[in-house]
Amino acid sequence: MQDRQSITDNLARVQEEIESRAREVSRLASDVTLCAVSKTFPADTIRRAIAAEQRVFGENRVQEAERKWPELKAECDDIELHLIGPLQTNKVRKAVSLFDVIQTVDRERLARALAKEMATADRSLPCFVQVNTGEEPQKAGIPPAETKAFVDLCRNDLELDIVGLMCIPPHGEEPSPHFALLQDMATRFGLPRLSMGMSADYSIAVQFGATVVRVGSAIFGARATAMAAVE
Ligand SMILES: *Cc1c(COP(=O)(O)O)cnc(C)c1O
User: Fold this and answer.
1) For residue 231, what pLDDT is reported?
2) Which of 136, 191, 215, 231 has the maximal Cβ count within 10 Å?
3) With a 6 A CB cut-off, is 217 part of the ligand 1 pocket?
4) Does residue 130 line the site of ligand 1, with CB under 6 A?
5) pLDDT tens, position by position, 167-192
6) Does residue 214 line the site of ligand 1, with CB under 6 A?
7) pTM value surpassing 0.90
8) Residue 226 has what pLDDT?
9) Cα→Cα distances 84→2, 35, 142, 149, 170, Å
10) Measured from the CB, is residue 87 less than 6 Å from ligand 1?
11) Alpha carbon nearest to ligand 1 atom 4, residue
């Protein structure tokens, strides 16, 4: 568990790294949003990051987010909460009411359920389409070759507010080709935002045009794996 000072220091260090990498490739650091991934960490730990001015957070499970975030959001009114994990259609209603951005639109059935719920709730959230850049059978996401058609369906038929693409490169592989592929697709499809890069590779992601980096352990410390498994 990280104390308040180290979370503050970690946030500053990650932010500085984003700034220096952005400068190297002539990008503005202000075009890169740091999404602090707080999954498995308790509300009190998250409060330390909020006290250090962090406002954008990511959670990967609806149920866990429901236990922590209504209260945290009541305490701080400019939090932006991103869903970065798989969403089951039976949790769409809860997800749309609690989250501010959905990064993991990864199949037609989910896209349809989200469109319906956003219309009902009159709450149109910015969404990312998750792309399975490594075409891994066990991983969520749309295969690259099908992404254009899926983005068109989401935007034109379902009227979802698709703002960008998101990917999680295969574990243990060099991430750059995956980041480059995602960047190229976003440019071709006219999508302004790219969510890519985690603690181990967010610097590289910034060089490849990431506009959102999802950083957990570099800010909050190592996650207890046993807890992560049950969650
Ligand atoms: C957990 C998680 C992260 C953060 O991972 P770290 O390696 O701790 O930075 C980023 N993206 C997704 C989708 C995650 O589930």
Assistant:
1) 38
2) 215
3) yes
4) no
5) 999 999 999 999 999 999 999 999 99
6) yes
7) yes
8) 52
9) 22, 10, 15, 22, 16
10) no
11) 216
